[in-house]
Amino acid sequence: MKKTIELVSCEDYVLQEVKEYQSKDTLQGMADVIAEGAVLDRVSKYARLLKQPLTLGMFVPCDSEGELLEEPDDSMNHGISDSSVNDSDMYLYACQCTGYQQALERVIFEGFEIPYPSNEYSTVVRFVGKEFVELNFHSKGIISQFIGATYFSITSISDLTGLGLKIKVK
After folding, report:
1. pTM over 0.70
2. How distant, in Å, are the alpha carbons of 22, 64, 99, 105 from that of 73?
3. Mean pLDDT lowest for which of 9-23, 95-109, 154-168?
4. Cβ distance 16 to 43 under 8 Å?
5. What is residue 101's predicted lDDT score, i.e. its pLDDT?
6. pLDDT at 27 over 60
7. Domain residues of the chain, as ranges?
8. Among 3, 143, 152, 153, which Cα is nearest to 59's?
């Protein structure tokens, strides 16, 4: 299970990391240099994360082309002793399970769901927490965000800071 952190602005993250670094008792010399390097590395990775453009696969499982994946039908797994299930069906099921699991590992935001079926024009993901957040991924690559009664156009992860969202980190 990956650790989660709250999605915050880059400025808040930097201040949080510096405060944590300064509160630790560190040895002088080389240990300080190593610790400072680790803080800079984490801050740099977080800043790069915030700059990433949003994709549907960050919120719900998607294939490598960004198409929504449904969880594989578990009935195949229960029918293993059934003589009607052949090796190619089992292989296909195993591939679907592996692909779905890999897609789940690429999801970085917690708590989003698809509230109603997607169509050829858009897919909506919704999070209800500190704020009600609804993201609409349009087929033309435009992403709109609905908070309260207001729509915003968004482009990157940094546009979602301050909403109390949680992200998975390694």
Report:
1. yes
2. 51, 20, 13, 19
3. 9-23
4. no
5. 94
6. no
7. 3-51, 61-106, 112-155+162-169
8. 143
